Every structure is written in C-alpha cells, then in structure tokens.
Amino acid sequence: MKIGALSSSLRKPLPVTLATYAEMGLKGIQLLAAPEILIADDKLLAEYKAMCDSYGLVISAVCGDVCRTHFSVEGEWQDRVRVHNHVVDLAAKLDSHIITTHIGVVPEDRNDPVYEAMAKSLKAAADYSASRGAVLAVETGPEKAETLLQILDDVDSKGIGVNLDPANLRMVACVDAAHAVKVLGKYIVHTHAKDGINLVPGSAAATYGIVEVDGSKRKFTEERSQYKEVPLGDGQVEWAPYLAALKEVGFDGFLTIERECGEDPEGDIRKAYNFLKDKIS
C-alpha cells in the first residue's frame, strides 16, 4: 500500500501543497475538483498534471464532492450525474481514473423510493465512468457496509466502487472498519486515512440526512450521532486489524490522508504519514 493525502487537507495553494507533500515523502495526492479545476481547459489540466509529475506524486483519485443536486431526487439526479461525468472527463485528462464522492444515505429497504432513485442514478453515473475506464468510488459512512454492498450489487456496473473511510464508519455509524473491508472488499479501489471518536452513539442516517425524491428532507425521530475528528492514531479506528483486512482482500492502493479540521494541518498530516509508514513497512 502507498500513502498520499488529499490536496485540500493542507489548506494551502496547490504548488505549496505539492512541494510539502513531496518533502514529507508522500507518493500520491487526491485532487479536489475545486472550481479552478472544474473550469480548467486542457492546457491548464496538463499543467496541473505536469506539476504533480515534477514532484513524483501520483494523482490517486479526484474528489468529486461538488454537489449542487442529489442522486436521490427526481428531476435533479440527471444534473448530479452530468456533473459527475464532467469530473470523470477532467480526471481522464489528469490520467486519474478514480472519482470519489458522497452519494447520500442509502436506505436499507430496496422498496424505499430514495433507494430506487439512487440505484437508477448511480447506474447512469457508473456506466459512464466505466465507458471512460474510470470508477465512481462511493465514500463510506452513512450506512452499514451490508446496505452499501446491496446497492452496489444492484447497480451492477464495472464503473462502481468504494472509497473506504474508516473514520466515517467508526465515529458516525459505530461500524468496525475491518468488518466493512471484509464486506466491501471486492469494491474497494481507494481509501481515506482519517481518525475520529464517537462521543454519543446515534443514527448515522439522521446525522447525514436523507433527501427525499421530491427534494424535501426526511424527518427522523432518532437522535443524531455526536462525534469529532481527531489526528490519525488518536481516535477509535483500530488500525492494525483494518490494515490487515485491506491486505487480506488484496487492496494495494492508496491510503489517502484526510484532515478536515484542526489548527495544525501540516503537523497532523506529518504525524499521520509517520504513523501509517510504520504500520505498513
């Protein structure tokens, strides 16, 4: 396995981020599809790619969390798929073939209208991804691994996969990351290396929220989870069994460090890199 980091985690301009990650010893970078990338022409995309190459950093994936519309809403999901497809095209020009994104909460019931809408829209997005040699990698967190596996199997596309985020699973849904790997192993194409602590168990679906097919928000009677993200190694993710499970299912891709908060992102990313390096060496 190789170690990278998300471009947005350092919170600095891309040239500074690339230089810092290379100096740390990272091997990859996941680019956020920020506004400047979404509107970039071929020349600018080539410059981004050359810049990454010059620092010896592989573009492990592109983060396509650019949601204005939702995979679950009738009349909206076509636009959400269109935006995803645009990111797929951009990623191809960057020689990257994994597009990660949150898709919303997958209901457990196949007969739920939200489930049906999501399966339909994900099929469209995944099939387009496959046509470009790419994979839509769904980020874990809102639902049980078994529920996510069910919809991935139902979508039944070569262009669908998983971006496994162990912290989202542990701190929000109280799901063991190693168990999720064993359930979802055949679909895992990318991972986020993040850590967190669950403070008060609750409903992950209520925490993330479900958008109904008419665009309204589903009402929940369950309490939301309370949690916090912490520097990698300081949380409740059990890294030894998690990394062993990834190895067992044959995953040899990127562990991409993600840090979404904290006052010292560079220090936290360095700490995460050293922690992971010791675990996989």
Description of the molecule:
By secondary structure, the protein is of the alpha/beta class. The protein has a single domain (2-280), classed as Divalent-metal-dependent TIM barrel enzymes (TIM Barrel, Alpha-Beta Barrel). The protein has 11 helices and 10 strands. The protein has helices at residues 14-24, 35-38, 42-54, 77-93, 113-131, 145-155, 166-172, 177-184, 204-208, 239-248, 265-280, and strands at 2-6, 28-32, 58-63, 98-101, 135-139, 160-164, 188-193, 195-200, 226-230, 254-257. Strands 1-2-3-4-5-6-7-10 form an 8-stranded parallel β-barrel, surrounded by 5 helices. Strands 8-9 form a two-stranded antiparallel ribbon. Strand 5, helix 6 (145-155) and strand 6 (160-164) form a beta-alpha-beta unit. Helix 5 crosses helix 6, helix 6 packs parallel to helix 8 and helix 8 (177-184) packs parallel to helix 10 (239-248). The longest helix is centred in the middle third of the chain and has 19 residues, at 113-131. The model has no long low-confidence stretch (mean pLDDT 96).
